[in-house]
Design brief:
207 residues, alpha+beta, Immunoglobulin-like, four-stranded antiparallel β-sheet, 5 helices, 32% strand, YEATS, YEAST_sf
């Protein structure tokens, strides 16, 4: 990759997942848990500088199974008893370049596994089950306006969510941060290797 093209690349860390609370005495045959599917920034970062909308595709048994949110918090809350995969489509600003839309799925998990119970303790009405993953979106050769906005963007906290306290105490958070840090180091190493390759190619061309 040419150095000039690489300078137009920008990245954005996001987290996609679900959080589920057992309803306890309020549970019935069809409503055992209250759950939320969400897209959020790492450490509560506001994503409005680059995200235009987030669309969630729920199970067709729900009323209005397709939900579109155009402002944070990007989350949908429902109650139910069954687990299923939720479709997630993130649409970024129109000037972000080629990768304007990212489509993925995230599993709705209501019942903890034996391993999760061993790590986090049993699920209660106050202790939720969180299932989320880290994603890093790479925008290649961004348009000028988007590139400048991403480069000059100062960290800002997203609008308050009812789940902020649960996310801040989530025990897998250090692992997510570690993944992010490792990827940043990898990107820097790749840049150095690309520079070294350009030097070698220049030497070969002049030989």
């Amino acid at each position: 990759m040419a150095r000039g093209a690489d300078e137009r690349d920008r990245t954005q860390a996001i987290i996609v997942g679900t959080i589920a609370y057992y309803l306890g005495k309020k549970a019935d045959e069809y409503h055992s848990h209250r759950w939320t599917v969400y897209v959020r920034g790492l450490d509560g970062e506001d994503l409005s500088h680059c995200v235009e909308s987030v669309e969630f595709a729920l199970h067709p048994s729900f009323d209005e199974p397709t939900r579109v949110l155009t402002q944070a918090p990007y989350e949908v809350t429902e109650t139910g008893w069954g687990e299923f995969d939720i479709g997630v489509k993130i649409t970024f600003s129109s000037d972000c370049g080629e990768a304007r839309t990212v489509t993925t799925t995230t599993p709705l998990k209501l019942f903890p596994s034996a391993e999760e119970i061993a790590r986090h303790g049993p699920q209660t009405t106050k202790k939720p089950l969180i299932k989320e993953r880290y994603e890093e979106i790479v925008f290649h050769e961004c348009d000028g306006g988007f590139y400048k906005r991403m480069k000059s963007h100062a960290w800002k906290r997203a609008p308050k969510s009812a789940h902020d306290d649960a996310w801040s105490s989530f025990k897998d958070k250090p692992e997510l941060v570690g993944i992010y840090a490792a990827r940043e180091v990898t990107k820097e190493r790749i840049k150095i290797l690309e520079q070294q390759l350009e030097v070698l190619e220049s030497i070969d061309a002049n030989a």
